[in-house]
Amino acid sequence: MSVQRDLFASNRAWAKAITTEDPAFFQKLSGQQRPEYLWIGCADSRVPANEIVGLLPGELFVHRNVANVVVHTDLNCLSVIQYAVEVLGINEIIVTGHYGCGGVTAALEQRPLGLIDNWLRHIQDVHRRHEPMFVPLPEGAARANLLCELNVIEQVANVCQTTMVRDAWERGRPLTVRGWIYGLADGLLHDLEMEVSLGDDPSEVYRHAIAAAQLRNAP
Q1: Element spanning 133, H or E
Q2: pTM of the model as a whole
Q3: Of 43, 98, 121, 177, which residue is 20 to 30 A from 104 by alpha carbon distance?
Q4: Alpha helices, DSSP H only, in the chain?
Q5: CA distance 106 to 109
């Protein structure tokens, strides 16, 4: 009961602080959901989506999973994208990874963890696709950081290939999909130069982002 008591106390303190600043905040929030952004991020507890970008509840629509992976058979993630694009009318999708990602590190080291190994195979596929880029790098953090970046770039490419995003572009929607990465050590976001908008060639943007990642992580 002490855990529940502590969390409930924190919740009430948080709600009080919000209403002190804006007495009508929760009344307005309960009326309608109008976020401008869809955030696809990692489930890591050190990466709280709203807080990182300084947004309040209701301003960011969020989907999180281990290592911010977008898989075309994941109906959970695809449903979130569809709801965001077709119902909420969101025109900004941001895939955000982070350095020091445990899922990415486990995929790189191929450490057996159980059921999640099946999920991490998607990241191992990313590593295998770009394996020559890792050869000149020392083992450890340098390779893990590169894979964290490449994983974000690949997932942005996957988002761009979903039927919801492709259909939105065909209808002329000004939808943008971009890839960022977050630094646990300094709390800062970094642009990975993987940004695809209406009229862009996703393949060309992808090639540029991969080249930029290689240059950025060169020994």
Answers
A1: none
A2: 0.93
A3: 177
A4: 2-21, 25-31, 49-52, 75-82, 102-109, 116-129, 141-160, 163-170, 202-216
A5: 5
The two three-digit tokens of residue 143, written as one number: 């390779």
Architecture of the domain whose range is 34-216: 3-Layer(aba) Sandwich (3.40)
Just list the catalytic residues. 42, 44, 46, 98, 101
pLDDT along the chain (219 residues), means of 10: 88 92 88 90 96 93 98 97 97 98 96 94 98 96 98 98 98 97 97 98 98 96
Query: Can you tell me which residue has the tokens 């486990």?
Result: 106
Q: Cα separation of 23 and 29, whole Å?
A: 11
Residues of the chain with CATH 3.40.1050.10: 34-216
Query: Could you give the maximum distance between any two Cα atoms of the chain, in Å?
Result: 57
Q: Would you call 23 helix, strand, or coil by DSSP? A: coil
